[in-house]
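Q: Convert this sequence to structure tokens.
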Amino acid sequence: MNSRTLLTALAMGAAVAVAVPGLARAQGDVIPGTKVGGSRNIKLLAHMTMDSVEKTADITMEQELSRPYVYTAHRLTPSGVDAISIKDPSKPQIIWSWRIENPDLHKGAGSLNPIYLKSKGRYYLTNAFQFGAAGPDNDLGALVWDVTGLPDASKVKEIARLRDPENPGGFHESQAYKHSNGQALLFTQSSGAFANVFDIDKIAAGGSQASWLVGRVPVPEQPNQPRLSYHDFYIQYDATTKKDMFYGAGAGGYHVYDISDLANPKLVSSATGISGVSRGHTFVVDPTGRYGVAEAEYQYAPLRILDLKPDTTQGGGGGRRGVGGIRVIGAWQADWQDLSHNHVIRWPYVFASAYEDGLQVFNMMDPTNPYTVGYYYTCDCPHGRGAGYDPKQPNFESVFSGAWGVEVRNADGLIAISDLTTGVWLFKMEGFDGWNGHQWGLPNNSTAIDWDNGPDGAPKVQKVS
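A:
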């Protein structure tokens, strides 16, 4: 661990404030024209202001109640990552922080995307970085720490740095997955035309980085696409087909691969040629793999709901088709003037981090007619004044401010939001006290990975976690 590591929250104390739960604010109490407060069924547990505006990027949360930890990316300068104890969700505390060496020399967005994994009884934290070419570490994609020893910050150990000098620019996004073959995997975005697949056990064992890489998922060739790359992706087991599936958002739209054989990924279908979508941003599917919720990163864009397995025996029944028969069958938006960012699915609910519109929850039980069931505005920001806004161009709006990342803890239904502008928020939704797919007659698969048992519906392999 380098000298920039902070072992306790002491040094960060001045930057942390916890909100008093239950205080609803009227429209415009903070800045005229802002959206504040929330629906009656969303209870605010705590709010941590963290550092300063535009510094808090993505968020992840461990799923075991015995390990009550949230991790957030601290972007820009100084770039790094924070571990937050939520043992008492009403009183979150930063218990460990790390910042890059020589922070003022580093350029670009920097820290973006924390992910956690578990394998063979050890817990790992990874964080994706993107540093600019004008400073050091332009080839640094991610750092990996062993965080098994938390809450004792002195036991957190850096074990690896993932670099890609052949494809500089770092890793914008990453995701974790427990493969049906038992491997605990880290998938990373790249500036190249593929997503990398790393084995966390191989990383922990040391050796050369080449030995850690166990696969790559290509981006299908797309005509007239200057950036042949992924932005983000989601990986889930399909309990019907008994296959590990990769759902990638990037050049051309949205792409589905069978990655059961990591060495030979097979393109299953693509949703391209969708009106208003030249590049996909986020792509998450329901527990069955039938319906996908897809985001495209531009103002006014709704979240589109895709039917990934349309029943052609029923004649198609409308909707806009992409390549491979995928159809757009529904759409949802919190406010037509804005844009939603990331989201996770706990059927029938979708929890979205919706930039200016904060936490949004909608019901997609009827995917052709989704509707909002709860919300809480976290941004406290005026409309159209987000990242990149230039007051010298009064007709230009930027809605890239507010809620960035979201995660849900299945054991108790705790909701965590990271807000680019205002920090970290913890919520509960009335009547939602946890989630298990079996309670809905569905596979128990979601962004909350069962590291001990592997994907629901997959053949059991020797226990490795």
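The radius of gyration is 21 Å.
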